[in-house]
UniProtKB/TrEMBL annotation:
It comes from Brevibacillus choshinensis. Residues 39-95 form the Cupin type-2 domain. It holds the Pfam family Cupin_2. This is Cupin domain-containing protein.
Length: 118
């Protein structure tokens, strides 16, 4: 057995796109270019509006906040819920109180085949 860390202290600060109080800890990259990471947003944290490089699944594992797509509507999101953006889709996320989310990016993601929608 091997043990690993993916907590906020081993992550790197996200400061692009006017992001604040945000860190990403890399977890794994598969041979077919799927990236998995853990995003930590402190209270008042925002990952600023930007286009998704690839399809992106944002799975909230603790806390609560908001997400938005290409419109200006901030949609509440909390632990146990997920948002999905297609490649190239503009998106943003944030929180007033703190939030942790697993982020999966890559081709071929089809969460609607596995998870019920809200």
């Amino acid at each position: 057995m091997k043990l690993f860390r993916f907590d906020q202290q081993v992550g790197r600060k996200i400061d692009r796109f006017d992001s604040v109080h945000a860190t990403i800890s890399r977890i794994v990259r598969t041979p077919d270019s799927v990236h998995i990471g853990c995003m930590h947003l402190d209270a008042g944290g925002v990952v600023g509006y930007h286009p998704a490089v690839a399809a992106q699944l944002f799975l909230v594992v603790s806390g609560e906040g908001w997400v938005r797509g290409e419109d200006d509507e901030r949609v509440p999101i909390s632990a146990g819920q997920a948002a999905f953006w297609t490649a190239g889709e503009g998106h943003e996320s944030g929180t007033q109180t703190g939030m942790v989310a697993l982020v999966i990016e890559g081709e071929g993601l089809e969460p609607e085949n596995f998870m019920p929608s809200l």
